[in-house]
DNA sequence: CCTCTTTATAGTCGTAGCGACTATTAATTC
DNA sequence: GAATTAATAGTCGCTACGACTATAAAGAGG
């Protein structure tokens, strides 16, 4: 059933308020790490407004979808991945400023998605060309997508402290060096390797060793032991970000 | 399939037949602490569906409003407070399951609001009677409001750990005992008073003493020093919740 | 082959934070 | 004025953590 609710045609219970139907969309901040840099998936706009500018992938929520379902569908379309069921997808927040789209009233539910490997995106369907772009030089983006992307970055950075989210950037089996690089890339600094190792291994359920003493050969140094994501969801104790300069008075 | 608003092949502007308009509402989880118990502001529904059941206050987002603006307007209407500009209001998440309202497609942006004192709510406008109810015996609520309320509780509990949010439950000047009671009420346990005091005072910017060595008299024991909310937004180091039983293997 | 480089892993040391606990102080109540 | 209540001060021992050093195991290049 379609809601044509402007004026007096609102359903029972809503008729005391006049309300305007809004378009509801999802926007995706799809993040990955390639060559030690944080990359974001962007699409190039072909028409006004913001023609030629890059934007976050997204689209309308269909009548029988939740926002989460729509976001996962868009994620599959934009990345071209066959199976996105295991990927980390999380609602960020909703952006509803009246003027955020000059054409009409659009309320957008933003999501953050994290990918381990980074396949080159295949432009799905009629979508404009999609590409990985470095996070640092991504902007300025169309609409309020700069802010959405910044919010996503901040949220992911904060969640690395107290959740196992970092493993979502890693392949199924990974070394502690790769895991550390996730933290360093998202937080933008360097961490002490022995200390990082001690903290990760001291946190129960964060990672577990791959059976058989598997090691990753082919690198330049000593082969690293392989680990899998553990069963814990939260980190106790948390892995706190080193404080920025100037914090302690 | 469906034309995409951000796609390259769509004609000028949005294709009006590509999406279905949704009603967009806000729902508020308004929390306070009264007599050492966590209370939530609820309204009684007068009509189907869920007639006679309690629900979170909320309403439609008007055409010229953002969701935040609508939430603050609803907060003022439901609580009857003249000035809600200083109250803590924060977006929680958006609920968009297709069947969450049996009448029509409603996407609801949920907010959490924290109040220090607890004036008896005046039923604002045509709203049904609004009342403070204890959090523990609030359910079952109408629609998916049980889940929204639970999500709000969990979010607030988590934010107490690493933000100064607890002061939002307190009046402008408060004692450390009152602040501790906020933590105990939301987390549902007891904290050691000397240790709590030491941690709060050791966190720069969390609280600052009221000038003049002001103290709160009239209580039964030794008068407590009065404090104000500090200037910091985040807590360094965080005030971690005591681990639940069974967490360490 | 031997050595240098690179990376992983092991361990040390001093400090800060924190949980558990005891002691003291200053008000009200009986 | 003694008992009660609550705030504040302080102690003790353990753990976590940052900074640092040392060792092990691979490839690179002569």
TrEMBL record, chains A, B:
Keyword terms, alphabetized: Hydrolase
Protein name per its UniProtKB record: NUDIX hydrolase
GO MF assignments: hydrolase activity
Residue ranges annotated for the Nudix hydrolase domain, each copy included: 21-155
Pfam family, one: NUDIX
Organism: Streptomyces mangrovisoli
Claim: Hydrolase is one of the keywords in the record: yes
Family, per entry: Belongs to the Nudix hydrolase family.
Matching CDD domains: NUDIX_NadM_like
Lineage: Bacteria, Bacillati, Actinomycetota, Actinomycetes, Kitasatosporales
KW Hydrolase (keyword) present: yes
